Amino acid sequence: VPAGLLLERGGAVVVEDVLVDPPAAGEIRVRIAAAGLCHTDLTASRDAPAFPVLLGHEGAGIVEALGPGVSWPSTGTKVVISWRVPCERCPACRRGRQPWCESPLGTVGPRVQRASNGAPVIPFLRAGTFCPLVVVPAQAAIPIPAEIAFSEAALIGCGVATGVGAALFEGVLSPGMDVVVIGLGGVGLNVVQGASLAGANRIIASDLLDQKIALAHEFGATHGVNPGPELPAQVAAITGGRGVDVAFEVVGRPELMEQAIDLLAPGGTLVLVGAAARDVQMHFAPRRFMSRQQRIVGSIYGACRPAEHFPLFARWALDGRLRVSPLISRTIDRLEQINEAFDAMQTGGLLRTVLVFPFEASP
Ligand SMILES: [Zn+2]
Ligand SMILES: [Zn+2]
Predict the structure, then answer these.
(1) Which residues pair with 137 in a beta bridge?
(2) Residue 135: what pLDDT?
(3) Which of 60, 193, 246, 338 has a CA between 20 and 30 Å from the CA of residue 69?
């Protein structure tokens, strides 16, 4: 089957045929119907430890084959791929803190090879959804209501989980608090609607693009500001000089994280949601931070429990409590369009692009 691969560091996505093994014991094969293009896929070209990489980590589809010993979810079930399956063995899992699992599960061995030379391919984030067939541990396939569209379901598997989860499940946001969300892409808008669901008081949305601020108001933002040197003064004016209780940085730039600390009220928390480059540092004055009793929290995947929260997010999307379809700016139906779609995402306006696979006969 065709797949979107990164063959080398700094390279673009190359479409090549791959061979996908049947699922081994404890594994499952899913026929992917829709895969979201997430900014984290772009970081793989810069940050992945080894190549070739099969990109894509947001995906939804239908369970097609079960490995030995697997009885659930059954074939034909509509599922979302979770890229972080807790191992249930590490110290974090044994303490009941599965979202902080120290060694998330993937397949036991490589299940995808390049058709040209048989070399194993590494699925990005143990998922690799830019391919119509994905083999994952059975626990990575999370059943969701059949009524939800595949494209919306795909977004639940990363953008919605990461953003809504950061607001609801990191334990930093209580009803009545004031928050700022810096960066209003597909994840940032989900932080905004998560903060709204959490009962935040003022939700200040910040982005360079006015049209994204306008969209943020539809997702529950109460105020919008452009970033820049005057941002602390603007946030102070909105909050009566106090600052915000929680600042979410959803871009991944150290200068924005540093500025976000200056936006915090006493006792406030900076939540790092954006993925910075691996070699960058941030600088801040620890004395003031200590005196004001503040915190910095790193957030991956919104501290979600996928088996519990993905079906919940799907139901919320179906009943209108979560807005998911307005996050989809564009759909594409060929792997060859991925590079151009990533370029368009980086240059601004677009939120999420979803790759839709035509269903075809099983190989
Ligand atoms: Zn993602
Ligand atoms: Zn674990």
Answers:
(1) 27
(2) 98
(3) 60
pLDDT tens for residues 163-217? 999 999 999 999 999 999 999 999 999 999 999 999 999 999 999 999 999 999 9
How many angstroms does the Cα of residue 232 sit away from the middle of ligand 1?
A: 29
* Token pair of 21 as six digits: 């093994």
Q: Ligand 2: distance of its center to the CA of 136 in Å?
A: 17
Q: Is the separation of the CB atoms in 195 and 175 below 8 Å?
A: no
Q: 55 C-alpha vs ligand 1 centroid, how far in Å? A: 11
* Ligand with minimal distance to 102 CA: 2
Half-sphere exposure of 20 (CA within 13 A, CB side): 29
- Ligand 2 centroid–CA 176 distance in Å is 34
Question: Count of residues for the chain?
Answer: 363
Instruction: Decide: helix, strand or coil at residue 268.
Output: strand
Cα of 125 from ligand 2 centre, angstroms: 15
Neighbours of ion ligand 2 (CB under 5 A): 86-87, 90, 93, 101
At 282-336, the pLDDT tens digits run: 999 999 999 999 999 999 999 999 999 999 999 999 999 999 999 999 999 999 9
